[in-house]
Model the fold of this input.
Amino acid sequence: MSDSNDGLMGNDEKLSEQVQIEVVYGLPHRQKILTLSVDSPCTIESAIEQSGISDIFTEIDLTVNKVGIWNRTAKLTDVVNDLDRIEIYRPLIADPKEVRKRRADKAKEEGRADKVTGGRVNPLRANS
Done:
């Protein structure tokens, strides 16, 4: 019988357990890492609110900014675990695919890339 009581106490303890997390946000000229303890279970959104990082960086808008845990995108409703690092990402200034396409087009125009394949110019075929 004591085994079943111990199991119940374990569940109660888990409900009020504290987990330690980090909330991170950075700009090119300024970064902040906040370490805090939150009650488990706790969502990413709740953890960000509890950290107060939005008061430090007023440009953070969770309807716009994407978030992640340890460099993997996550949802605001995901539950954090002990020692998680919650990262708030800034919006992209330029689409990486578009930047690569423009760079490849420029290389083709300058003769640094094969006009058909887009790869490096083959010196054996360059003269033909």
Observations:
- The longest helix spans residues 2-15.
- The domain at 2-88 is CATH 3.10.20.280 (Ubiquitin-like (UB roll)).
- The beta strands are 18-27, 30-39, 67-69, 72-74, 85-88.
- Confidence is low (pLDDT under 50) at residues 1-9.
